[in-house]
Every structure is written in C-alpha cells, then in structure tokens.
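Methods — Computational structure assignment.
A single polypeptide chain was analysed. Its primary sequence is given first, followed by the predicted tertiary structure written as structure tokens.
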Amino acid sequence: MAGNTSSPGATVVSRAMAVLGAFDERHRRLGLSELARRADLPLATTHRIVGELVAHGALARAGTGEYVVGRRIWSLGLLAPVQTGVREVASPFLNDLYAATLATVHLAVREGDQVLYLDRISGQRSVPVVSTVGSRLPLHSTGVGKVLLAHAPDTVQADVLARLHRITPYTITQPARLREQLQRVLADDYATTVEEMTLGACSVAVPVRRADREVVAALGIVVPSLKRDRSRLVAALQVAAHGIGRSLTGPSGRG
C-alpha cells in the first residue's frame, strides 16, 4: 500500500507511482476498485491515472477488464544496471548449464529481504517452479536466497530470521536451524533446499563473485532430487559462477 497518497499535497508522479506500486508478485491483475484501494487513492483519481498509464503503455487492460503491468515498464526495467550488467554477462553461462542439465536454472540478486530473479531458463523436462523473471521470493526458502542471505549484512539476516514463515511442510522456520545452515553455506560455498519452496523441487545454488570477492548474485539449479548429483551440480555451478564473475570485471568493463 502506498499510504498517504490521497492527501492533497501528493504529486501526480507520486500518485502514478502508487498505482504502479499496487502490483506485486501476488497481485499481478487488479480491477480498478482494488487498484484504488491498494494505492490509497480516490476511485476517480485512480481511473484518470490508469487511463493515462494505459495510453503510454505502462499498464494494459486484460480481457477480463483487470489491469496488468504493461510492456513499457518491463522494457524500462531491462535497462536497470543490475539487469544489463549481471544478466547480460550471465546469459551464455545459464544456457550452457541448462543444456548440460535440462534443469531449471536461476540467476538472482538480493533486493532488501527478498530474492529478485533476474533470469530463468527451463524446459518441458524441468521441475515446475513458482519463480518467474522479475519475481521476488523469500530468502529463507530458496537455494539462491540462502546463498544471498548468508552473505547479507547482519541487520538483514536478523530481520529475516525474526519473520520466518512456512511455505511448505519442509520450509525451515526455526531461526537457530536456519542460522546453522547459513554458517554451512559460508563454509561449503553452496546452499541447498529440499522442497522448501515447492513440493517436489530441490535446489542447489552458489554465489557469483567479482574479482574483489564481493558476492553480487547467486546462481542456482532446481531438480527433483539432490541425492545422486549434488557434487556434479555444485561443480558445474561453480565453474559457471566463476566465469560470470570473471566476465563482470574483464576487458569489457562491465560491472
């Protein structure tokens, strides 16, 4: 919720941003009334702003009459440095990983206390997952999230550990147990999950580092089980992550 945007002093830009901010991972389609409520704006004001956003391609109207984020917002999002840098460099490595495993491959970064998925490659033989490019998921229940959480500042870790919630019967919600796992991630340099985000899906992920050893992203693979292929998958991920990190600081000047 935007909050306070219905006040007389709110600018046109702030109101438009409130409307756009009403959309999130769980609210991809919104009717006009719900948009007004979530943006904390009068219905008439919302109607006018939505009309202008649709005209400029920032929003689009679905066949159901609900509104969705338009292609123009997506196109602009691709210009963000985190997209054009890490995502562009990582793309060939993700394709190589997918070709070798036929499993869902993820590239993600931390945004606040959530995982932001920059890229995903999957196919018909891949395990179904809930992530999509541009989506945000909890740090504590995903492989890439655990990697990023393990390398996050203490304040971020404390905040996440204080608000653990269950997604599947296997999601870890005990702070002490998760903290132990995060310590293991730092020691082993990879993280795993076992049906903690989606039933029937296990994941393994590794950090992506620049030359200065700063962790800038996480690279992960989702498979039905890790019982047999964990070592092979970790090795493949680490080779790809090293290649991405080296490319980020190479002659191209990216990063």
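Note: The longest strand covers residues 215-223.
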